[in-house]
């Protein structure tokens, strides 16, 4: 069943990709036809509508989505979706924006299928619980690092001064604007760490941002933490928000603790 | 003559792009065949050799390149080149690495042709002095911003705590790892500001990083500053390094001064 769900996620991502790449959408985007007149909102709306339609037609799971909240159906379990993670990147032409889709019977701790696709590059990351994580069909083997550590740090408006201490230990820092993709790249070993901390609660992360990439990272032996190195726990809620540190190597936890 | 130089730059970029995308190169990269055994060095070497060969065969200008330094020829003027800006991104699979090529008869203040190509996406940015700046054949019209400001900030190992003050005024922060491309995106209006400051002198920027994108930015009315808002000046030297702030809107200078 889990392979079947993964197949539906792939199809769902294709539908959204086709939609936001379509000429009709691009014309609309130029005209700023979103409900509030901004192209940012327009792409979120169109992507969510497309993905939600597909999932409600093709599965009987309830769907938790970033904008629509929880849409209940009669089946057991939940699809947790962020139709566009990195909306601002998509508007600005930064090739880092993705869909994030996860299936869980209960909550974050039991995610069974996770799927993230970078719409700009076509790269697909996915995992089935207990069966490993994959990128474009190939098993993810975290790359070996040299003495350089490349830390990826999310920098919110007020997060920057606070993240100085952790960043000063990194050789390089990137801030790419998509949590789901950044965490997949921690799984790959491209980044050693993904760090998201902000005093602005509404800029913290939701389960819709995290569910798929958390499984992908766990399947290569990594982990996502909240607070003082507690394993991240999140329920099926559109409102819960958390600051996180994600790593794929326990040595980094030792070093930073 | 300037259009002819631009044509040679485009051809040069294609040659480098073909080379680093070739199967032979990719096999070599996997094997870590660089002089010091690292793929980072290998791509820099291969790109520089390819670009330098093309430029020395097809122009009579002296060439200042990141790795090779100044290679003199009998013609008047200089090509200033960074064969791969964003080497680490290219190795790590982050779609942000470019070639930067500029022509000047004298120094940074008189650059006449600037060309930057993102090898990962194929996007080409270029400008001819006095004739405007272009992206993929279309005149760059900086996008109108909403109340959101997206600042792009280079974050070196120790730069982060120091950049906190300026970053706290931004709505969003990105750190993408290629100065040339980031500055082109300031020209486009994607970013309001590019800020590079580090106490590690060897991580400051060289004319090879800056020459092409400085002209592209100037041609849309922007400017690059050093120190306390002095217009950036750099000579033909592989050793001179500067910290910079680049903006395309003088209002931002007023706000930050």
Record the SSE blueprint:
Two copies of one chain form a homodimer.
Chain A: H1 2-21, H2 23-31, H3 39-58, E1 62-65, E2 69-71, E3 78-85, H4 87-92, E4 98-104, E5 113-118, E6 124-128, E7 133-135, E8 138-139, E9 150-154, H5 159-162, H6 164-167, E10 172-174, H7 179-188, E11 193-196, H8 207-219, E12 223-226, E13 230-231, E14 244-247, H9 250-256
Parallel strand pairs in A: 1-3, 9-10, 9-11
Antiparallel strand pairs in A: 1-2, 3-4, 4-5, 5-6, 6-7, 7-8, 11-14, 12-13, 12-14
Helix pairs in contact in A: 1-3, 2-3, 7-8
Helix content of chain A: 25-40%
Strand content of chain A: 15-25%
By secondary-structure content and strand pairing, the structural class of chain A works out as: alpha+beta
Number of strands of chain A: 14
Form type of chain A: globular
Mean pLDDT over all positions of chain A: 86
Radius of gyration of chain A: 17 Å
Biggest sheet of chain A, strands in spatial order?
2-1-3-4-5-6-7-8
Most extensive interface: pair and counts? Answer: A-B, 34 and 34 residues
Element-by-element helix/strand order of chain A: HHHEEEHEEEEEEHHEHEHEEEH
Main sheet overview of chain A: 8 strands, mixed
Our measurement of the CA-to-CA distance between the termini of chain A, rounded to an integer number of angstroms, reads: 40 Å
How many individual helices of chain A? Answer: 9
Assembly of the depicted chains:
homodimer
Uncertain runs of chain A are 30-37
């Amino acid at each position: 069943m889990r392979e079947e769900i993964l197949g539906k996620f792939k199809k769902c991502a294709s539908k959204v990709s086709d939609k936001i790449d379509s000429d009709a959408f691009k014309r609309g985007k130029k005209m700023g036809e979103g409900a509030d007149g901004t192209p940012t909102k327009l792409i979120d709306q169109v992507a969510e509508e497309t993905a939600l339609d597909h999932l409600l037609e093709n599965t009987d799971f309830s769907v938790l989505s970033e904008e629509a909240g929880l849409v209940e159906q009669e089946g057991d379990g939940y699809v947790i979706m962020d139709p566009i993670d990195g909306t601002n990147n998509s508007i600005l032409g930064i090739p880092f924006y993705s869909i994030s889709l996860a299936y869980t019977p209960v909550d974050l701790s039991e995610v069974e299928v996770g799927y993230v696709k970078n719409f700009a590059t076509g790269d697909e990351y996915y995992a089935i619980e207990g069966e490993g994580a994959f990128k474009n069909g190939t098993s993810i083997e975290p790359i070996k690092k040299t003495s350089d550590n490349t830390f990826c740090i999310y920098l919110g408006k007020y997060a920057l001064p606070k993240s100085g201490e952790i960043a000063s230990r990194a050789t390089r820092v990137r801030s790419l604007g998509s949590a789901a993709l950044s965490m997949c790249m921690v799984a790959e070993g491209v980044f050693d760490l993904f760090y998201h901390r902000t005093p602005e609660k509404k800029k913290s992360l939701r389960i819709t941002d995290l569910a798929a990439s958390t499984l992908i990272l766990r399947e290569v032996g990594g982990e996502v933490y909240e607070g003082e190195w507690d394993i991240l726990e999140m329920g099926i809620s559109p409102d819960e928000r958390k600051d996180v540190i994600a790593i794929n190597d326990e040595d980094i936890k030792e070093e930073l603790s």
